[in-house]
Every structure is written in structure tokens, then in C-alpha cells.
Specification:
Blueprint lengths: L1 H18 L12 E4 L5 E9 L2 E6 L4 E6 L20 E4 L5 E2 L12 E2 L7 E2 L12 E2 L7 E2 L12 E3 L6 E2 L12 E3 L6 E2 L12 E3 L6 E2 L12 E3 L6 E2 L21 E2 L12 E4 L5 E2 L11 E7 H7 L8 E6 L4 E6 L2 E6 L5 E9 L2 E9 L5 E4 L3 E2 L2 E6 L10 E5 L6 E2 L12 E3 L6 E2 L12 E3 L6 E2 L12 E3 L6 E2 L12 E4 L5 E2 L12 E4 L15 E4 L4 E4 L4 E4 L4 H8 L3 E4 L12 E4 L7 E6 L6 E6 L7 E8 L7 E7 L5 E6 L6 E2 L3 E4 L4 E3 L3 E2 L5 E6 L5 E3 L4 E4 L3 E9 L4 E8 L1
Parallel strand pairs: 4-5, 6-8, 7-9, 8-10, 11-13, 12-14, 14-16, 15-17, 18-19, 19-21, 20-22, 22-23, 27-30, 28-31, 30-32, 31-33, 32-34, 33-35, 36-38, 37-39, 38-40, 39-41, 41-44, 44-45, 53-60
Antiparallel strand pairs: 1-2, 2-3, 3-4, 24-25, 25-26, 26-27, 29-30, 42-43, 46-47, 47-48, 49-50, 50-51, 52-55, 54-58, 56-59, 57-58, 59-60
């Protein structure tokens, strides 16, 4: 009978053991299974911490965690095999932590209530909870682990308690429905990919407690349009805002000293960005480089050159002042201009024939914006010609001053200088070749010579920013495509001297609505000009521009052209000599920027714009220290220019680090003393090191204890890097 009983008990035990699932080693022996009337396991239980237990009711799909103290961190949770059956989780008060990977991949949990006793959430605790919509994080929580809510793709909002100090790596990565996050004051760091691929996130307001945001923290936040950075942020790390495709504006605080690779790469709508003077390291791949990107740097041209050696290609860079201290020197067949401050240079290669010099090639090592003056003479030879393609495709060039005495500007000489804004051509110039200013996209101000006769083929083709231009009296011909695609050209005065306008001279000038035409042109001269017309690409045809007005003389060819093409016109004779009257300042000149003054002719209404020179160098009568320097950081001062009223900021050098301490001390065995170290404000002790701990030990505070008789050397190191040595004799 006993033998049968033992066999039965053994069989039952084996049967039961076969039905128990596999759990983590530290809990499997504590699992208890309760079977219902049908042999289906309706209840599972076990331990998940030293004093914490769990129970899974498979009928109600509820997981209950009870006990006091911390949950374990898991490689796989004890309920891993049943994660799809868990719909509800009840965690009772007393449990102090949510273990690592505790609820990872529990894809059917929609809501979670954590008790006030919880103080930490482990790594990956809720990662992959794809149905989780709401979770309360108790105010006592001080730590949220890496990837804690990664791939919680239905989580729409989260409130982080004030007690949390760091948002760690991947914490909310892949929460693509997360729209609203409140980051509390007190947070110091945001980890790598913390909000990566939160594609619905709209806004981020960083409190000023944040000092570090790690790489790719907001990578691919495709809806992020509003960002406020912390005023104490040290660096904009690699790819932090990469692929934030709708981000159009961001203010970089003066606390930032570096902008790393790809920080704003793929931010296609971020076209204007201001970089403070405090930035000392700028990656050439920080931004999504394009011709639409406009960088405003709160420093000088020299400071920009020291900041970066990168070729910024199509980028328009604006600095506080472009002036450089240039010295010229003739080296072989070149005249070289070198800045005494930044060491960068530009040069003109030239040739000489019959005592006359021709500019052949322009080269520059400048990375930032520059203004150039073409020399009037080189080695006693008068400069007469700016040669074919000599200065073209230079993206740093902002303005060019051509000296009186130059007679010829040859083909393509300034073409492709996409950031060229201003050119002054003296009256000595009698010949200007074709396509000289083609693709000068930013050209806004040009004064043409009164001495030349023909506006060549494609001369201003694709000068997108050109709004108005005065054609000098004496020009007889305007060649094909001369103003093609000058899409912002609004007004033009064509003098009496012009008798011919060629094929599609004004093609694509859809905003050219104010046109004054002299009486020198017959109707036949207008046949293919497209002046006053719009091009319909869809139907490949031209139609009348309803906003265009042609000002012309009675009975003129221009009048006939306007009538036959249904273009609105007004009968008024063009001015042989304009009466400009008083100008209107449209942009004030400052000590760092040129101004603009617009004049309107009292007779015909034509406009012209003249450049106002910069006032002078800034004059600061009183500086105010806005940030005191320390041994660790440079300071800053600000002052208001008494000339232009602009607030100017300059850095203050770091305070030189110093250290002083006793050179030697004597101790008795088992006796102690504290060594006092003097150093500059803002510095501090980083470490104490004893070269023989068997004789002397030393704490971080400088407390020295003699262990046994002998001699040793102590080294104290400050945060600034300064060190001092103290000899210790133990008797």
C-alpha cells in the first residue's frame, strides 16, 4: 500500500512539474500553480523580489504585484511567457521599484497606475508596451532607466516629476504618438535618442537647469516646430535635431560653445539661424547646407575665420563686420592681400601687356564673407581689364568695388557668385561682356557705367534678388535673355537711346510691373521681348500680366506694343534726366552694416537705390560685465555703441589659474593634519594623490594621515589642471 502511494505521489508531482512554465532562475522554484476544474492553469504566482511577490489571474488577465521593497531587474520577467495575456497590472503600495524589463513587450496593457511608494523605474521597464496610452509617474520617482518607455507607440503624453534629474538614453524613443512632454525644472541631462522618432512631438521647452543634451536626442521628430533651448546648455551635440523636417526657427543661447556634426542636418525649413559669439567650435556639417540657409554670426569676419575653415558652399553668412586688416604684397604674377588678424588671404593673378594689367584669376582662403577692392594699379601697371571668368563662382564674395580706370569687364567674370550683393561699376567701363553676372542670386544693388552701349546676352540672367535697375542713357541694345528669370525685378527704366530689345530679354520676370520705355524703339523692336507678359508653363504660352503698366510716349512703338498685347499703359514721356528729389532711407547704416537709400523720380516715378556707407568703427564708452570670467570659463562684456546704438558683446579672457600650498610638512605616526590650498575663485580641488600610501594617505579634502615612518610626496590637482607637490616626512 505504501509503495502504491509513493508511486501515485511521484506521478502527480511529475505531472505537475511538466505543466509549470520556465521562469528566470531566481524565481522558478517559487512559482505556484493553481488549477481549476478543467486542468487549465488559471493562476500563476511567484516571487519577483526579495520581499515582493506576483500573481497572474489568467481568467481576469490581471497581474498583481505585492510586497514591500524593490522588484528584481530581469533578463526575462517571470511572466514573460504570458505577456500577451496581461491586460491589467495592479501594483500595491509598498513596492519601491519597477524592475528592468518588468513589463517589456506586454503589448495589451493600456493603462498603468503606479503607487506613491515607487521611487525608480528600471531599464526597459515598459519598452514595447504598444497599447499603453496613459501612465502616472509618482512624484517620489527619482530615476527612470534607459529605454524605459521605448516603443510605447500609443503613449500620447507624459509628465515627468520634479524629483527626476536625468532623462536617460532611449527613454521615450519610438513613442511616435507622443505629442506633449513637460520637462520639469531640475532636469540636468537628456540622453541619446531620448525622444528619437517621436514623430508627433510638437514642442520642447527646456528648463534652464539642463546643461547637456546628448546626440540624436530629438532625431527624426518630424512634427517638432517649437524648441526652446536651456540658457545653460553647453553644446549642441551630433544629430540632436537631425531630420526635424518642420523646424524653422531656433535660438541658440550664449551658453553654447560648440555645434557638432549633423546637429541640424535634414532640417530643410531651418533657413535662418543666429550663432552667438560664444561658439568656439562649429562643425562644417552642422547644418543642412543649401543656398537658402542664412547664418547670422554675432562676431566679426576675423572671428568667423578662426571659428571654421570649412567651405560653406552655398550658404549666405552674415557677420557683424566684414572688415579685415589687409596688407598687400606682389608675389610673382599675383598680388596677395593677407589679413593681419586671422591670417586668411585673397589674391589676384594678373598679366601685363603694354603697361596695362589684366586680372586673370581670383583666389581666396576665406571661409566667411568678404568685400574686395580690385586694385587700380599693380606694380605701377594700370588695371584695365577684368578677364574672362576671372572672379566667378566664389561663394564668399559679398561686394566688389571696381576702380576708375578699368575699361573692360569680360564674359562670365562674376557669374555664379551666389552671395554677391553689391557691385559698383565706374563710368570708365565701356565694355561689359555676356553673362557677367549670371546666377548672382543675391545681387540687389548694382550701379552701371554710363559709358557702355550694350547689355550683353544673359548679363543678369537668374539674378533673383534684383528688384530695380537703371539702364544708363547711351545704351542702344539689350541682348537676349539679359534679364531672364529676374523673378523679383519690379521696375525698370529703358531710356530713349535703346533701339533694340532682343529675344526673351525679360522672360520669367513675372513681377516686372512698372516699365518705363523711351521713344527710341519701334513696334518691331518689341516682337520677342516678352516684356509685360507671363509665361504659362502648363500650356507653353505667354499671356498678359494684368498688373503690368507701361509708361510710354504718345504714338511710340511701346504704346503700339501695349495696345496689341492688351497691356495697360499710361502716356508719359520717359525722363531724359531724372529728377530724383530727396531720398528715403530704407535701411539705416550702422557701424557693421551698410545702409540703403531709395530715390523716386518726380517726373516718371522710376526708383533707384543707393548704398549708404557704414558709419565707422563701433565706439563703446562704457563696458558692462555681463558674465564674470573664471579660471574655467571666459566671461563676457557688453556695451552700447554711441554711434549706431547697437549692443556689442565681447568675450573676457579666463582668469589665469594659480595654486599655492605648503611645500613640506612633518607628521608623527598616526597623527593627521589638513593641508590648505589656495586657488582662484571658480577653481577647485580635483584630486589628491600620495606616491606612497603605506607611509602617508590623503583624502580629497586634503586630510593627511601618517601611517609609518618615512617620506612621501603628495600631489594636489585643481579642476583647472594646475598642480602642486607637498613633501611629507613622518617621524
Amino acid at each position: 500500500m505504501k509503495k502504491k502511494l509513493v508511486i501515485c505521489m511521484l506521478s502527480a508531482t511529475m505531472a505537475l512539474s511538466l505543466s509549470i512554465p520556465t521562469f528566470a532562475k531566481d524565481t522558478e522554484e517559487n512559482v505556484k500553480v493553481t488549477a481549476g476544474e478543467t486542468d487549465v492553469q488559471s493562476s500563476l504566482s511567484g516571487t519577483c523580489g526579495e520581499n515582493v511577490k506576483w500573481n497572474l489571474n489568467r481568467n481576469t488577465h490581471s497581474l498583481t504585484i505585492t510586497g514591500k521593497g524593490e522588484m528584481n531587474d530581469f533578463d526575462e520577467s517571470p511572466w514573460k511567457d504570458y505577456e500577451d495575456e496581461i491586460y491589467n497590472v495592479i501594483i500595491q503600495n509598498g513596492v519601491t521599484s519597477i524592475g528592468g524589463l518588468a513589463f517589456s513587450a506586454c503589448s495589451n496593457i493600456e493603462n498603468m497606475e503606479l503607487p506613491v511608494s515607487v521611487t525608480s523605474i528600471g531599464n526597459g521597464a515598459f519598452s514595447g508596451c504598444k497599447s499603453l496610452k496613459n501612465i502616472n509617474i509618482p512624484t517620489n520617482v527619482t530615476s527612470i532607466g534607459d529605454a524605459a518607455f521605448e516603443e510605447c507607440s500609443n503613449l500620447t503624453s507624459i509628465e515627468i516629476p520634479n524629483s527626476v534629474k536625468d532623462i536617460k538614453d532611449y527613454t521615450f524613443s519610438g513613442c511616435n504618438k507622443l505629442k506633449d512632454v513637460k520637462i520639469p525644472d531640475g532636469i540636468k541631462t537628456i540622453g541619446e535618442y531620448a525622444f528619437g522618432e517621436c514623430t508627433d512631438l510638437l514642442s520642447i521647452i527646456m528648463p534652464d537647469s539642463i546643461t547637456d543634451v546628448e546626440k540624436s536626442a530629438f532625431w527624426k521628430c518630424e512634427s517638432l516646430s517649437n524648441v526652446k533651448l536651456s540658457a545653460k546648455l553647453k553644446s549642441i551635440k551630433s544629430s540632436v535635431f537631425s531630420e526635424c523636417i518642420v523646424l524653422s526657427n531656433i535660438e541658440i543661447p550664449e551658453s553654447v560653445t560648440s555645434i557638432e556634426d549633423g546637429a541640424f542636418n535634414g532640417c530643410d525649413k531651418l533657413n535662418n539661424i543666429e550663432i552667438p559669439r560664444t561658439v568656439t567650435s562649429l562643425s562644417d556639417e552642422a547644418f543642412n547646407v543649401s543656398e537658402d540657409l542664412h547664418i547670422i554670426y554675432d562676431g566679426t569676419g576675423c572671428e568667423w575665420e578662426k571659428l571654421t575653415d570649412a567651405d560653406w558652399n552655398d550658404v549666405y553668412i552674415e557677420v557683424q563686420s566684414m572688415s579685415h586688416k589687409l596688407k598687400s604684397k606682389v608675389v610673382g604674377s599675383k598680388i596677395v592681400y593677407t589679413c593681419e588678424d586671422c591670417g586668411k588671404s585673397y589674391s589676384f593673378e594678373y598679366s601685363v601687356s603694354n603697361g596695362e594689367a589684366t586680372i586673370k584669376k581670383f583666389e581666396s582662403t576665406f571661409a566667411g564673407p568678404i568685400e574686395i577692392k580690385i586694385p587700380a594699379t599693380i606694380n605701377g601697371n594700370k588695371v584695365k581689364t577684368i578677364g574672362d571668368s576671372s572672379i566667378n563662382y566664389n561663394n564668399t564674395l559679398r561686394s566688389v568695388e571696381i576702380p576708375d580706370g578699368v575699361t573692360t569687364i569680360e564674359h562670365f567674370s562674376f557669374a555664379g557668385c551666389i552671395n554677391l550683393r553689391s557691385v559698383k561699376i565706374p563710368d570708365s567701363v565701356t565694355q561689359i561682356g555676356d553673362t557677367v553676372f549670371q546666377d548672382c542670386y543675391k545681387l540687389t544693388n548694382i550701379t552701371l557705367s554710363k559709358g557702355f552701349k550694350k547689355i550683353g546676352v544673359g548679363l543678369f540672367n537668374k539674378c533673383y534678388s534684383l528688384e530695380s535697375i537703371e539702364i544708363p542713357d547711351g545704351v542702344t541694345e539689350m541682348a537676349s535673355y539679359a534679364f531672364e528669370d529676374c523673378r523679383n525685378l519690379k521696375s525698370i527704366v529703358i531710356p530713349d537711346s535703346v533701339i533694340k530689345i532682343s529675344w526673351e530679354t525679360f522672360n520669367g520676370c513675372n513681377n516686372l510691373t512698372k516699365i518705363t520705355i523711351g521713344k527710341g524703339m519701334t513696334y518691331d523692336a518689341f516682337k520677342n521681348t516678352r516684356i509685360g507678359q507671363l509665361y504659362d508653363k502648363a500650356n507653353d504660352k505667354y499671356e498678359t500680366n494684368p498688373d503690368a503698366i507701361i509708361f510710354c510716349g504718345n504714338g511710340s512703338g511701346a504704346q503700339e506694343y501695349a495696345e496689341k498685347n492688351n497691356i495697360h499703359y499710361e502716356l508719359t514721356l520717359p525722363c531724359a534726366v531724372h529728377d530724383w528729389g530727396e531720398g528715403k532711407i530704407t535701411q539705416k547704416a550702422t557701424c557693421s552694416k551698410k545702409g540703403r537709400e531709395t530715390y523716386t523720380c518726380k517726373i516718371c516715378g522710376a526708383d533707384q537705390t543707393k548704398e549708404i556707407p557704414m558709419l565707422s568703427a563701433h565706439k563703446i564708452s562704457k563696458w558692462k560685465v555681463t558674465k564674470s570670467p573664471t579660471v574655467m570659463k571666459a566671461g563676457q562684456k557688453a556695451g552700447k555703441c554711441s554711434i549706431c546704438g547697437q549692443t556689442i558683446r565681447q568675450s573676457i579672457k579666463k582668469i589665469p589659474a594659480t595654486i599655492s600650498a605648503k611645500k613640506s610638512i612633518t607628521l608623527k605616526v598616526k597623527k593627521s593634519t589638513t593641508i590648505k590650498v589656495k586657488y582662484q575663485k571658480g577653481d577647485g580641488i580635483k584630486s589628491w594623490i600620495s606616491n606612497n600610501k603605506k607611509i602617508v594617505t590623503v583624502s580629497k579634502s586634503g586630510k593627511v594621515i601618517g601611517k609609518k615612518k618615512g617620506k612621501a610626496v603628495l600631489t594636489v590637482k585643481l579642476k583647472s589642471g594646475k598642480t602642486a607637490k607637498v613633501k611629507v616626512t613622518v617621524k
